[in-house]
Amino acid sequence: MSASEPEDPSIHASTRATPTSPVWSDATPEAWRAAAQRDLHGAPFDKKLVTRTHEGLRIQPLYSARDWAHANDPTGAPGIPPFVRGGTTLGAVQGGWDRREERAEPEPDALNRAILDDLEHGATSIDIVLNPAVSEGPGGASQSGAMLLCVDDLCRALEGVHLDGIVLALSPRSAFIEAAALTRAFAEKHGVSTGKARFAFNADPLAELARSGKLPAPVDAMLDRLAVLAGWTAQHLPGSTAVRVDTSPYHEANATAAQDLAYAIATGLTYLRAMERRGLGPPVAARQIVFRVSLSCNIFLAIAKLRAARRLWSAVLAACGVPEEARRGRIEVRTARRSLTHRDPWVNMLRNTASCFAAGVGGADTLVSVPFDEPLGAPDAMARRIARNTLTILSEESHIGAVLDPAGGSWYLESLSDELAKAAWTIFRSIEDAGGMPHALRTGLIAEQLTESYAARLRDIANRAQKVTGVSEFPLPEEPIPVRTSQDPRELAASAIARLAKRTVEPGSSEVVERVRRETWSTDRFDLLTRALRAGVSMPELADAINTGCEPTRIQPLAPHPYAEPFERIRDASDAFAEAHGCRPVVCLVPVGPSGEHAARLDFVTGFFEAGGFEVRATSAAPDAAGSIEAFRAFHAHSGGHIAVVCAADERYPELIPQLVPMLHAEGARTVVLAGRPGDHELVYRNAGVDRFVFMGCDVLETLRDLMHEEGVLP
Question: Residues near 691 by Cβ (< 8 Å), separated by ≥ 6?
Fold first, then answer.
């Protein structure tokens, strides 16, 4: 199957009336721009008021009907193609959101308690994240992920859970067909009605390849397994889905919103083609796919991202000949990992709230709120409770889902959605021209694109144009990091081995495994997997059987890059230094002149250096160089700090710096930093002994790293 060139993916939406009364007669965009330019006093309008995104989009400060090309088009309503404004006519107004909780407790009993607690307190579906040990055996156990190694383990994990009232989802890594067979074996053993049960098996081999860099078989073979599972699910489980397109590996590697969308639809098209090769028609195959989208806390861009995703997928399905009513895409939103910090993790609650708000406004079908302490390890009970309640408050108290299409008719959001869709479509077409998503992953094309996008974002993070609250902005260097403990993988492996030893293995199970090993992929082989598991065969044994003779696929995995990572690494080094030496490296601020002249600069440089883990102290303000040097002499004698930062008004510097800086060096300052831009005086200031300049827009990371290196904190 190949997608023909659809129409230009512009987003259609209904509009709001433009005021025409005399009160508004002079309030034109031109009049506003003229007034704004007067208030800018000659500063460039485009530089001061136009925002540029990492997608290359230009965000204007004001939008009107003139900015929306389809302002007079009455089409485009919730539930109407191209589904920009929602996949269903009533959206969340009628049924609300599916509030999903991820669970990754390794031990089945602990997992069961966690699932029951979530369902009792507001969750409507559960996503069980599987441990690598499921396919690799107990020796491959990691600290996180459910170790469901046989049917008995799943029975213990789901004891007391009524599957007819929830969606049970799996995050199975590469073992998706084995995990689906395990779930089927459990359902058959307990008499779960296939008509009522709703499962999400979430086969997604390309996401696993991107994340881990490996698959147990060639990509084509994994796609064949995906298609077999999708065909069986479509036939036997009408309320379930087999396939998920998860772009979180790309998002965590700092994909732009346009790249994220392009990779999503390119992957979805790959899976459609695989299912068609197995005889599944495009309309049926499309219903087997759910998109999982990660959202950061840029609210407007996140809303536009969901709207554009539905528009793009509708365009792909239209090109594949899918009828209009079957082109609606289902979207699951997970709050983004890359936005979360392990320092000042409490701010993560606000980040997650912003992401969940955007997901609700943007029309997500399923929402997953990540516990705020996830970067620290296994989340604690309070963090999970807050994650659940975030969705409950937004839904039940804030009534976000009670408003149908709240973003519709916003000229800004309509235009942003349209421009984002066009940018993503261009990237998608380039991937198709290069051979499709599997080829783009194997050849490193995706990695190259993400390297470029991360380099651009890192520049903004480094100069704090993109701020990370609590880390690069408003840091608290002495605030302790909450400690989260996890079980030792060796203990988990020993426990799993003990459980496997107690399971009942039916006679003849080894013969079933041998048949599995010899069979080619078909529904019959999937039936054999289920039969083997019901007979007591373990998941690792089954994985070994189906992967026998397969050549593994390996690529360089995509490296995740949390926003806060560069600053947190420096802070981690500072913490280690403080633990070893009993103190942190010290920076001395040397203010000169009245408080009104240097107060703002003191605040700026304090945050600047605390973001790197420095202890920042300030001498008493002095009126001139002589007074300042006396204050610094006393400070240096007491603290031994070797970094001095001069803070004064720009007007004082030409006279002050030639006097003060040589004296600071003479009194023991190894490095003298000037707070402010040097302008035309840079050469004079450097000749006087100024080593560095710090100001708004400078490379904060480079400065902090260099100074920490000089202090012996970084190698």
Answer: 671, 672, 673
